[in-house]
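Page 42, continued from yesterday. The earlier attempt failed because a stray header line got pasted into the input along with the sequence. Redoing it now with the clean sequence only.
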Amino acid sequence: MKLGIFGGSFDPIHFGHLLMADLALEAAQLDQILFVPADISPLKPDGPTATDRQRLEMLQLALGGNEKFELSRKEIDREGVSYTVDTLESLHEEQPDHELFLLVGADSLESFGKWKNVQRICELAIPLVASRQGSNADLNQLAPFITPERLVEIQRYAFEFPAIEISSTQLRQRVAKGQSIRYRTPRSVECYLQNAKLYQSPPV
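This time it went through. Structure tokens are written below.
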């Protein structure tokens, strides 16, 4: 089984996340993609704005109806700082016959060298790199951590991703200002945010 791993804060999940995952399915002919929300990202030590429960519920709403998208509580249940290498080690131990692919955006690739045990990450999973359309990611940044054969493999699976200017930070800011987030995240997630009054500015 070819399994994609998509980690992040998902605070909140949006159409950019979902489109990237769908394109990754095609690019590597994956059987399934596992969405793994981080408890605390090493690069975002202050943690997410929404609670773990809220982020899980929003992901469930967004992923519902797609049998190839699955939600994992692995990092949230482990608690503390979420290191990708630990998650991959755990998945490899549980399903050693699965071929693992790690979804990585071109922007994240620039800081990839700061991740914990990059060499081991690349041994456990093939980085599946999404480049902005018209702007190819420099995959040679991975060369110090991998064999030439692995680099060729990574280059073979790399794919292009439309330049959709949507980010979770932008959505939180728009909600706080009372602006529309329609067509930026699934309607079910938008309604969830409204009902939970999530990300809204506190009363003055």
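Notes: The CA atoms of residues 39 and 78 lie 8 Å apart.
Reminder to self: strip header lines before submitting.
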